[in-house]
Amino acid sequence: MSSSLLTLHTPQLTDLDELVALDRSCLGGLWSKDGYRRELMSPNSHFWVLSLDSPRIIIGCGCFWEILEEAHITLLMISPEYQGQGLGQLLLHGLLGDAVSRNLERATLEVRVSNQPALCLYQKFGFKVIGQRKGYYKATGEDALVLWRGNLHYPQFQQELSIWKQQVDDRLTESNWQLSI
Question: What tens digit of pLDDT does each residue of 115-174 get?
Fold first, then answer.
């Protein structure tokens, strides 16, 4: 069986409709088309999207805001039919690598207390729970956990990124994915 090709790249304004559709299927419509447009045009927002190569379809998206020396991860989503195949790890690795290249020192994010797969992913990458926001998700009233990962600017973190890259590559191979460069 041949591998399916994936591309990890920055999105364009022409991708807005696909991003909104992905957001609806993954996050219930967190951001509007205008919200994505603003974010894509903001110099402080850094996006990565994961696309199938042929046909070109966006199946994942991650974003962080660069705030002083912090990468605040605002989005990390994989289309439901592609979850559980290591693609979230690939996107998170890409976001953290981008944060390192921008000399950022730490990463933070909020995640639903009930989102166990996401919590496991973030903990695998060294994130720790540092707080909780009561009723953070307005639609459901669910709390969010605040996660934090420091020391991105230290050589030890770069070594960890290299180890994670190999683990991500191995997981993608197991799931029959190939990242096109």
Answer: 999 999 999 999 999 999 999 888 788 999 999 999 999 999 999 999 999 999 999 999
Residue numbers annotated as active site: 110, 122
Rounded Cα gap, residues 37 and 181, in angstroms: 26
Bridge partners (DSSP) listed for residue 97 = none
Provide the token pair at 60: 């994942």
- Residue in the structure block whose two tokens are 């799931």: 175
Does this model's pTM top 0.85? My answer is: yes
pLDDT digits (tens, 9 = 90+) for 6-34: 999 999 999 999 999 999 999 888 899 99
Q: Which two tokens stand for residue 173?
A: 């191979």
Closest alpha carbon to 109 in 62, 162, 61, 47: 62
DSSP characters over 64-123: EEEETTEEEEEEEEE-GGGTTSSHHHHHHHHHHHHHHHTT--EEEEEEETT-HHHHHHHH
* Domains by residue range for the chain, with CATH: 4-175 (3.40.630.30)
Adjacent-strand bridge partners of 180: none
